[in-house]
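Summary for the steering committee. The consortium agreed at its last meeting that each partner would contribute one worked example illustrating the joint modelling workflow. Our contribution is presented below. We chose a case with several input lines so that the handling of multiple components could be demonstrated. No manual editing was applied between input and output; the record is shown as generated.
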Amino acid sequence: MDKDLRLGVFLCDCGGTLSKATDFSAIKAKLQKFSDVTYVSISHDLCLKKAQKAMQKDIKDNGINRVVVAACSPELHEKDFMNVIKAAGVNSHLLSMANIREQCFWAHPDKDKATKKAMAQIGMAINRARFLEPVEQAQISVNRDVLVIGGGITGIQAAIELSNLNLKTTLIEKEATLGGKLNQFANLYPVQVTPEELLATKLKQVAERQDIDVLTSAELVDVSGEVGNFAARIKRGNEESVRNCGAIIFATGYNTEFSSQICGFELSNNIITQSQLEGKLKASSEVKQIPESVCLITNISNEHSQVSLLSALRNALGIKEKFGGEVCVLCQNLKVDGAGLEKLYRDCRNKGVLFIKFDNSPRISEQDGKVKIEVEDVLVSGEQLTLLCNLLVVEETSVPPLDSQTLSSTLSVGLDAQGFYQEKNIHLYPTASNREGIFFAGNCHADLDLMQALTEASNVALSAYQLLAQEKMTVEAEKVMIDPDKCRFCLTCIRACPHHAIREAGVNHEKMVAQIVDLACQGCGICAAVCPAKAIKPKDWSDDQILAEFELLGEYV
Amino acid sequence: MKAQGAFLPDIVAFCCAQSAYQAADAAGSMGITYPENIRVIRVPCAGRVDVLHILRAFEKGADGVLVLGCHEEACRHLSGNIRAKNRVQRVNTLLQEVGIDGERVEMFTLAPNQGPRFARIVNEVNERIKELGPSPVKSRA
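What follows is the complete predicted structure of the assembly.
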């Protein structure tokens, strides 16, 4: 604890509203009794510029070196107050807040009880303030190049967007050509553009850009380093090269797989998958026997997937256009929950595609070179239907790309239960990984249609830009500190860190210790809680600060 | 010491800044009241809360300790809430070993917009701790 403490307490009554619930001057009088509280002021609107100017003046005039603000929730204005005190010459982390609005006067209508609680809260904040520590800012140079893994439409779009933002991009694709799934699709309904046209436009853009470097038949082997300074080992044939980059975007897409377990029957000449059908539609002029009647079956397991529903509807329309004949779609539930899906469904109906809804999986058998489907149509009061068709097309399930398992373990990025990449938080950070500087876009982490994937590619490019906009990144240096004398290098923190932000480092060529990487650290403090030697101290959330908060428990100030 | 009849338990709630702390704010903003004898301590993640912190709270006179974090699978730091749950479980066992009711410490999960749930949890726990009476650690001090 600093011996020379000069605390300044700034009370705010929120435009006079809180003064109705309590007597602020009484609180002020009590606070002035503390020996280290140098200054107490009451303001009506600390969130406004004018009051903040006065606050800065008070801090300077009274030589205040720890600031306590008792006002609204820190979630609202903590950042503002940090800037205010920084401008007044006090380190921005020497601020402690008491939430006397949301968590006191607004929640407790009883005036006396609320006042008592407010006093206790301010007391807690003062106690905490005594243990605050400054955190300095540092500038770290970053590599502004971006590595995009996967040359499908999402990866291509991300590379183009990054190039628009003047970031140099390396796009790696494990196949010999770019395009990914677009090379297989026969049409892109509900989007009115053919896959060939779309790919050609995008590839032309890629070719025009000087700052997009395309590596085909290349695979990512390993990545070392942290955000701003990654080094990626890339294998191309027998050659291995290293690319340095500041951020990495995964756009590795998805694979499809037919599961006879889910469907309950096997594939044959007359029973094919959606992707086999795409192949036939794509080369429709070469198809010798045009099937007279085709059935498509989707949503067998009643697990909704936008990708498989979309391919069933797209292909139903594709068959009608290319082959004609009878087309029937069997489905359990048809959820038209994406943009353009309702229109696509209506287009199918208008073109004469029949839809049959079932509850129990249809019985499939083969008879005289035809496929016999016995199904109970639940919409026509459970009528038993027997359909005979030339071709049955079954849905496939999306599965993660083959290398996601190995990449996830070499890069320490998380996978979800199905093996797709796991976002940091699906609502708040939908494209970020658990590691700073590594992002996900497209179907490698979510079930998206084409437009959503393109939108996400643009979003992810902006996230990377936000990180690498400047050549130097400002970080809070040593906001979490590991004491090298206490560290016994047990690796507990390195294993526990969810963001891969702790690495090993040598001290004076003698012993190895754990070291926090400031760029990658997100300040959760999990390492400090697991460290058996108590060698780790998050400066904003140290043990001393947390323990000081309940020092006064039970007593009211 | 307070009179026995009007026992008002001291409850410490460690609240994750990503969820529970905002839920507490939401309760206030919605004007939902809950017992005022709760002391909210803001932590960056429920995973920051150490066994030591919980035990020290009891040592300093808390009658009950709550650890409030994000819903499972929704932790910004992947597994902070799971770690917290396990630690609460450990403290529970430790307390029982030394003869303190393990129920005095509990973990709940909520989302930032669940103000009513925050108030409900605090109410429930407050009632339960009232029934249990003052913490034996406290009365000896």
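The helical segments of chain B are 20-29, 51-59, 80-97, 115-132, 136-140. Chain B has one domain: 8-131.
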